[in-house]
Amino acid sequence: MRDLIKVLLTAVLLTAATAKAAEIEVRSAALHLANEGLVLDAEFSFQFPPRLAEAVESGVPLYFLVEFEMSRPRWYWLDERAAAKRLQLQLSYHALSRQYAVSSGPLEQQFSTLEEALGVLRHVRNWVVADRIALVSNARYDAAVRMRLDTSLLPKPIQVSALTNREWAFESEWGHFEYRSPQMQAPVETREVPSVEATGQ
Fold it and tell me: How, if at all, do strands 23-34 and 171-172 pair?
């Protein structure tokens, strides 16, 4: 009986360790204003599950979604939704060149090791998430960001396995933080003063 309990406890601990390893953590997130708009820098932390590594090395591309939301609290009405953005990142492996690749749209970076490629996935830099003109001057905003594996883009047989296998549920909770927009300077209105011609008497 004791041996059976030990086996069950070991199985539970291994399951918990697997579930923990399949989690993504939002380590940091910050917004700053640039010429092109409001820019997000975020850092994620995770240990890549062996099942996902095997899939990539077998030629299965994995798609990750970084989702961002921002709203402005209003005491007199519902919160105003200021921004909502999604960034898709693809992790793949090219067997001929033996290179891992991380791509977003037409942009692609190649790496010789999986860990180097994951290092790029863990850091989102200079992502424009809102226009400058959409911000209210000197206002407080509630922002949130998260990352998740998009299982809807996996091959159909793997999608079926993902429904029951915890290793495919690879995602983070929403990481919440605050942002206060800077004091915007109102445009200075200029008017032309009509010239007065001097008239002699």
Answer: parallel
CA 5 to each of CA 15, 16, 162: distance values in angstroms, whole numbers, following the listed order = 15, 16, 29
Calpha distance 100→69 (Å, rounded)? 30
What are 29-68's pLDDT values in tens digits? 999 999 999 999 999 999 999 999 999 999 999 999 999 9
What pTM did the predictor assign? 0.77
| DSSP string covering 63-132 | EEEEEEEEEE--TTSSPEEEEEEEEEEEEEEETTTTEEEEEETTEEEEESSHHHHHHHHTEEEEEEEE-G
pLDDT for residue 196: 44
Structure tokens at 75: 């005491």
Instruction: Quote the tokens at residue 34.
Output: 């640039």
Assign 53 to helix, strand or coil. Answer: helix
Domain boundary assignment for the chain: 25-180
Contact present, 100 and 113 (Cβ < 8 Å) = yes
Read off the pLDDT of residues 144-192 as tens digits, 9 standing for 90 and up: 999 999 999 998 878 777 777 777 889 999 999 999 998 876 544 444 5
Q: What is the CA radius of gyration of the chain?
A: 25
